[in-house]
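Weekly sync, protein design subgroup
Attendees: M.S., D.O., the rotation student, P.L. (late)

Item 1: inverse folding check
M.S. brought a backbone from last month's batch and wanted to see whether the design step gives back something sensible before we order anything. D.O. pointed out we never logged the input encoding, so this time it goes straight into the notes. Structure tokens as presented (378 positions):
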């Protein structure tokens, strides 16, 4: 039975991953989280982990007191999370939100563990560095995002050079079909009302702006080696076809299932095997109709901005990601309007200087400049 560490254990993906671990008996050696120490304490006790880490030092001090009757080591900060990522185990499941997941991913790879990746920003910002390190260490990067898992599953058993196109599906979010005029004064509550998925706040806003799909295009470029112009985004409101591929002979293969993240999580943990799925199974007869449409890139500008960024290459994907993270934070705090998110991302994309060849330090500097560009616009 495989053992693992889970980064971002108290979030949506992390809690569902632990649900899979609980059901299938996986050994969990370490957990890392942001600030929800009440839930992290419960998880640590239930799974008898060796160590936990919290990004916030003050929260880590509180957790240490709560766990003083155990032998569980309590760590803090980015270094602490990286130490959790480096603990012994077969897999590191990274479900941290944002660029904060990049260094822990590299630490896990350095320790020789396979990566079950739900932190798309790892590849969006550091794809070249991460892929090179994974190749050097001989570890696999197993996608957990439902779309990339679907592509990965659809490619199994096919010749490596036969892939000609990726079909990346999108739910369209809560504002599908709306005009820019209709989106001028939408509220945070409305933007968080996703029609199909239950996710964290940041990714739910990204789904509403189609930024999430733009980031997934960038991630797919790094995972599957196709350029952005070979990745077709399709709005699929039912969220049943999770994505697919087209081969050189014109054949299309896709992966279908209920909108439940436990399936791609489970597949990443069991790969290359499949285990019984104890949750809800798909009934196509009950679904009845599946529809597909082109996205409205004039209204939802974040998607084409991401495609522009990965086409230009270098640090541009880091810039759009950093600007978006900062803009979404401002929107959730009620400081900017919904449509300003894309406007601020575009400003940063065209303002921050690019580098085609870069280091890890360059990535974090570009992220910092992108955030400053957004904040300076207020």
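Designed sequence read out in the meeting:
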């Amino acid at each position: 039975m495989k053992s693992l560490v889970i980064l971002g254990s108290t979030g949506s993906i992390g809690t569902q991953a632990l649900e899979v671990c609980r059901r299938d008996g996986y050994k969990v050696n370490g957990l890392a989280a942001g600030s929800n120490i009440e839930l992290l304490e419960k998880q640590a006790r239930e799974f008898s982990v060796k160590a936990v880490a919290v990004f916030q030092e003050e929260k880590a001090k509180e957790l240490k007191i709560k766990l003083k009757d155990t032998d569980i080591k309590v760590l803090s900060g980015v270094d602490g999370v990286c130490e959790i990522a480096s603990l012994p185990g077969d897999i590191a499941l990274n479900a941290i939100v944002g660029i904060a997941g990049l260094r822990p991913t590299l630490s896990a790879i350095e320790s020789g563990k396979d990566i079950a990746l739900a932190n798309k920003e790892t590849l969006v910002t550091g794809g070249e560095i991460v892929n090179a390190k994974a190749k050097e260490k001989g570890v696999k990067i197993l996608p957990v995002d439902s779309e990339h898992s679907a592509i990965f599953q659809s490619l199994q058993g096919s010749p490596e050079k036969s892939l000609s196109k990726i079909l990346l599906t999108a739910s369209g979010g809560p504002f599908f079909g709306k005009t820019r005029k209709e989106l001028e004064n939408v509220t945070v509550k409305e933007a968080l009302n996703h029609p199909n998925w239950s996710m964290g706040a940041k990714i739910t806003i990204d789904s509403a702006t189609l930024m999430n799909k733009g980031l997934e295009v960038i991630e797919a470029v790094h995972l599957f080696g196709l350029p952005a112009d070979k990745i077709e985004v399709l709005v699929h409101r039912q969220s049943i076809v999770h994505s697919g591929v087209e081969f050189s002979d014109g054949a299309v293969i896709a992966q279908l299932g209920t909108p439940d993240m436990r399936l791609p999580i489970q597949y990443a943990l069991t790969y290359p095997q499949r285990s019984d799925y104890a949750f809800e199974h798909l009934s196509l007869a009950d679904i009845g109709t599946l529809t597909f449409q082109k996205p409205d890139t004039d209204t939802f500008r974040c998607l084409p901005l991401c495609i522009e960024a990965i086409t230009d290459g270098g640090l541009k994907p880091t810039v759009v990601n950093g600007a978006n993270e900062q803009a979404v934070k401002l929107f959730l705090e009620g400081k900017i309007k919904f449509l300003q998110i894309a406007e601020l991302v575009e400003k940063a994309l065209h303002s921050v200087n690019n580098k085609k060849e870069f280091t890890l330090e360059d990535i974090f500097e570009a992220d910092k400049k992108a955030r400053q560009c957004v904040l300076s616009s207020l």
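Discussion: The mean pLDDT is 96. The first helix runs from residue 12 to 24.
Action: P.L. to compare against the previous round before Friday.
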